[in-house]
Amino acid sequence: MPNLGVPELLIILLALVLLFGAKKLPDMARGVGRSLRIFKAETAKLRDDDDDVQHTVQQAPAQQAQPQPQPVQPQPLPASTPPAPTPGLSLEEQARQLEEQAAKLRASAAQTDNKHA
Questions:
Q1: Contacting residues for 38 by C-beta, under 8 A, at least 6 apart
Q2: What's the predicted TM-score (pTM) here?
């Protein structure tokens, strides 16, 4: 992928301003930033879960004589919580799903703001 220089970035910025308008760009940037923070948090959780599984697998032979604790039953998610990305998907597909969920949340928030206004 070629490096983007200043002229290319200016052309991209000009195209964004023409497509979306100057007023909507800060909102879009905020939304992208939130989506990226959510994505980073979820990937960090996945890495932590993988580390926990590997740590548990390594300790399992030493704990064979001890009784195993009962597994905790997962609690159902509240209706307002969006479903987590499917584990078998690539990171790009998971990011796309998170962006779609964020767009739906922004649209529903905008609708409620319009109702209250």
A1: 98, 102
A2: 0.35
